[in-house]
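Batch manifest line 380
LIGAND: adenosine-5'-diphosphate
JOB: complex structure
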Amino acid sequence: MPSEKVLGQGTMEKIGSTDAIFKFGTATFSMEEILFIKDHDHGLRKMVDILTDPDKGIVERAGDIHAVGHRVVHGGNLFSGPTLVDQKVKDDIRDLFTLAPLHNPHNWAGIELAGNIFEGAVQVAVFDTAFHQTMPSRAKRYALPNALFLEHTIQAYGFHGISHKYVSGLAVEYLDKATSKVISVHLGNGCSMTAVVNGQSMDHSLGFTPANGLIMGTRSGDIDHSIIFHLVHNLGYALKEVEDLLLRESGMFGLTGFNDLRDVEAAAAKGDEECLLALEMNAYRIKKYIGAYAAAMNGLDAIVFTAGIGENSSTLRKLVCDRMEYLGIILDADKNVQKSIGIHEINTLSSPVKILVVPTNEELEIARQAFGLVKGDQVS
Ligand code: ADP
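JOB STATUS: finished
ARTIFACT:
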């Protein structure tokens, strides 16, 4: 930074298993290894080993790193921007474990480990909830007794904010208009949509926790909450079982047995009825949110598709954009299936609304925010 040049990039997937996937690459070197990675500490240390390798690495020693940016999913109402990590910030992130049990404990562990490994570097927490702090009360409040909001801060917080901020920012630049109304559709393992007016989040499909809204890999998204009471009172479920059911056993996985959309699409292509219906349901939910947000913003200039599914699944994009002419959304079937790099339009020339595919880059957004916070101090 600030040139935003990527010197090296790596991922460590399936941590905790004997077939973890370790990938690393630079301009001159790339590798992929399947190996046993015991835990996050082990994984991060392997990454540092290669970062500092005299032949393949990009820095001489871990001490050469000035700042480490961390994605932290839930910042509650405590954090509205990137934040330098100190003990108090770590404690606050820990206090928020209950609100994002699938995410915050891992984010916290990453901060702890990086603090030990990159001694001397500042740690910056970049929160997924921060972008949504601009949501007006009418969007973020639930119609529950006021005391629950006032005393226990029960409200919608919104998530995937790093991605939504990044891709909607690029869309706003691309539109090059004085004012803009954009719907950003992030479809990965977790899925969410944001209504973005003039670059600011105005409404969002995930709520108090990253659970409601769209149909996700293993999460149900919106359901009638009475189902929870029915499961507990009449079907003998314990609350923990209901939680597991809704967060880990539902969504595309619950409907089809697959949580990877590629598997669902492959089975649907062979005529599997459950998979065909699951794709239709998934797209239908997104359509309804597009309608809701176009109404909430009183207009629409662009829809942005991003993340693993949004960027790659022409099938789902087609199902979503089909029969949306009333709202000015007209997909170009050929452009939709063409492979392109970077931001690109997949609408027809006559479509009043632009349909954009924008590759997300959460790492770059985190680097920008972290650098913005520390520049002039630690980074020279
Ligand atoms: P995360 O939310 O974990 O960051 P990603 O943004 O990487 O997730 O998205 C993961 C999802 O993207 C998976 O469900 C995967 O099936 C889907 N995906 C990746 N490539 C494709 C593809 N070519 N076609 C359809 N779905 C894809």
